[in-house]
Amino acid sequence: MYRADSGDPCAQYTLGVVHATGHGTKHAKYDAARAWFRLSAEGGHAAARLNVAIMQFYGWGGPADRVRGRAAFGDALKQYACNRARIAGTTTTVAAACGGDVASQFLLGIISQFGLHGAESSASVARQWYTIAARRGLRVARESLFILYGVGVEGSVAADVLL
Fold it and tell me: pLDDT for 74-110, tens place per residue?
């Protein structure tokens, strides 16, 4: 708790997860989770930015704002993708995704959705990569599908993830 109160984004993110999942308590506390994720996001934590955007989009722990939530989600995904691509390199990411690496599959969805690193923007290609990652249990990929469908991509999240 001291590290989180002192401004450590990783510790703040961890407290956000604890509150969001209700770990150690009977119920999740979405308002506290959203507050800790927001502090962590302000400190540059990419996953916290994704969580804040999702919570804002759905109204978990505060008022829902689908327009701002969707925009914030897109910005957070771009940050996440750029961070990952700097680490791995896009060619390496494609090889890892084809080899079954779920984080790389999700990353290719982001790259495809937003046309990053010289790729052509394609919602249908993004949908394919998000679906693969979501079927493998990556929750943020499933949330990405919900957001993608919210902007008019044809299909059913339930069908994509559950089939």
Answer: 777 777 666 655 545 555 666 666 777 778 788 888 8
Domain ranges of the chain: 1-64, 77-163
The dihedral region occupied by 22, where left means phi > 0, alpha psi between -120 and 50, and beta the remainder, is left
DSSP symbol at 119: P
Question: Tens digit of pLDDT for each residue in 128-156?
Answer: 888 888 888 888 888 888 777 765 555 55
Count CA within 13 A, CB hemisphere, residue 140.
22
Burial of residue 56 (number of CB atoms within 10 Å: 0-12, 13-18, 19+)? buried
Of 53, 79, 82, nearest to 68 by C-alpha is 53
Cα–Cα distance, 144 to 119 (Å, whole number): 18
pTM of structure: 0.56
DSSP 95-112: HHHHTT-HHHHHHHHHHH
